[in-house]
Amino acid sequence: MTTTPVPPVDVDLLREEIRKTYAAVSQEPEREFIFPTGRAWAEDLDYPAELANVPDSAVESFAGVANPFSLGPIEHGARVLDLGSGAGTDSLVAAQMVGPSGSVTGIDMTPEMLDKARATAAAMGADNVTFIEADAERLPFEDRSFDVIISNGVIDLIPDKDAVFSEIYRVLIPGGRIQIADVTIQRPVSEEGKKNIDLWTG
Predict the structure, then answer these.
(1) pTM
(2) How far is CA 42 from the centre of its chain?
(3) Which of 56, 113, 120, 146 is the most buried (most CB within 10 A)?
(4) Domain limits of the chain?
(5) Distance CA 154, CA 63 (A)
(6) From the CA atom positions of the chain, what is the Rg in Å?
(7) Closest of 151, 167, 166 to residue 84, by C-alpha
């Protein structure tokens, strides 16, 4: 008799808790969270000069973990996908790099973050940016749609990393670039730790 392994975490509950956490980051950016947020944090991460042009309405809710642009600037005219775009900071930095002949698409699963990102893009007059509600494990794009994929502190929140990287590979052009800033671990997580929702959401 075979047994099916019990998932380490309730994925639906996890998704809901992640939404709640990042909705709070969007709506109450002045709050203290268990992770750093805001413009001062982005500046500490040595973000490129384009950050200065992104309004506080987005950057106050920045919750990245590192600087994906440290892997290199994005070329003028590139088509960029931002996985887990949040309030739009990275997307709006990338939009300045690619210029009017390029495009940036940000996806996120938190409506409050998407509302903030769209409002900030409109305030900047960033016509080359689109924000879409979607999941990284099921991207609503055709194969080979993007030249560059960026992501900042998002993939670590998703249990099914195989699905995420499969989708990244599918929508990226051959020879395209991935610029990911994320959290990694050096030792295996205990079974108890895998079931701790708070560890997943932070």
Answers:
(1) 0.88
(2) 14
(3) 113
(4) 11-183
(5) 10
(6) 17
(7) 151
